[in-house]
Amino acid sequence: MKSRIVFLVLMMLFYNSWGVFSNKDEAPGDAITQLKIKLEKDRGNKIYLNRIAGLLLNRGDYPQTIFYARALDSIARKTNDLVSEMYASVYLGQAFLMHGQEQDAKYYLDKSEKQAIALSNDSALSSVYNGLGLYAANVDMDYYRSVDYFFQGIEAAKRSSNSRLYSVLLCNIAGIYYLKKDPQGLKYALECYELGHSKKDDFLIFCGAVNSAYMYFLMKDFENSLKYIKEAEYLMTKDDFYDKTNVYNLYGNILLELGDYDSAIKTFTEALQYKDISKASSVANTYLNFAKALLNKNEYQESIRLLQEGLNVSLQNNNTIYIFELYEYLSKAYERQGDYQNALKYYKTFFNLSDSIFDSDKERHLSELNIKYTIEKANNDESDQSESFLSISGRNAGLLFLAFAICIITFCGALLVYNRKKKQFLQVAVQHQGPSTNRGDVLSSQVNTSEQTREEDLVVEKYSVSSLSDEKEKKLYEELNKLMREEYIYRQNNLTQEKLATLLHTNRTYLSQVINKHTNLSFNRFINLFRIEEAVAILSDPDNDIPLKTLSANLGFKSINTFYSAFRAAVGMTPSLYRKKIQTSGKYGI
Q: Model pTM?
């Protein structure tokens, strides 16, 4: 398995806008071969490079897409061809995203957004918003923002009359609903599927069929789910779409639900044969579902092995889509095996990570977007049956008025919540723009307040009998703070309680006593307090673009996952979202 394939949501349900700049009637393999032959004779031909990059992205060959898109970008910049440079950025942004290189992906996605807006190219802008939506879901775990981007992409697709991109975006919206376990997503998947058939576009049919199969599976309509996945498998084989692991994974799940266990296990095994050329999210999900099947057969050890494999794939590729369920089922597997220590360990991790991706005000906004889409589609169907996605009718004023009233009421409630959250965020941001000596007190105060309401999470020891005098205790705490504030000892990723106690010429018990009494924190939370304090200070500088993985390692965290969890617990949002809010809030004069 390559170390960088795809991180988060490039989940099986989600598709990039790879097909937007390529001809739907071209067989990808044949067309690419012919174009490469032509390119050999005319190496600087930007048209050939553009089409090859688009077809390779369509096929799912991301390393080759990056190679040809970079060549296009280089020639475009040398010839001052802004349009070709924009297309190269679009390809690079989505190829890097699919390949698991999030920093490069974000750079090119942001760049292509600016280029598409400057060139007033709504078709490219629609593709960019699709990529940004995928990024929001995969990297930031912000499904609300993801759907928001997808709907912006739909608007851009309407303006450019690009029905293909419109359909891909519908599929990705369906994907978000699937993650929310909301069957309302079926209408988006079926519309993509039907548009594909009306236009005889295999790629759109494939996208719609896979997503429809997932939605019917969610609804426990396994017969319909089987019908759509069989069609998807046929198209996948016929057109050589790459993500075979995804399709066979769902196929295996359907067979499992229909009681055909032997065929299901055989299909899961087949799915994993393609893991080296499939998206990391698809591979992780296959390990998860395979493990579930074996867990039902009481094969605990093999189930645990598969879950660990899925977890490794997710962590190595920064793919968090299935990480919650992987931790959850690891806990269940260990519990059923009788290993309660590991069961508790993984359940705690699952509980901490799965804390409220969608909060109430985001759910309201998602409902508003859904209402808006439904009404616009109804109006469009009345005004133009053949091209329902191209125009927004002014009819059906009653429905619009009703929706407007609902939105106003919802908006007022959401605004109150938003203002409170914004005030809290700006307070943190402004405080962390101030002198560094004050930052620790601010964040420490926030953590302590939170911790006092969660005493069950603390590792509190009883020190009713202790030979440590008040004077020695005070001196030890001062020396401890000096190590933290002046020598930044917390940046060491191998720092342990024993090692720190040795540096302070004391023992583990006294160190724990001092930390607990002065901060009401456990050792790990105390160390993370300083790490998060420095992280907030760095991320509060809008000009500091250090990659989050690098920042996490520099601060002493052993994994990006632990960093995200600790940061969200202290600040109330992920580090990537905090950075984004800092960058968009200007001088905080709101």
A: 0.51
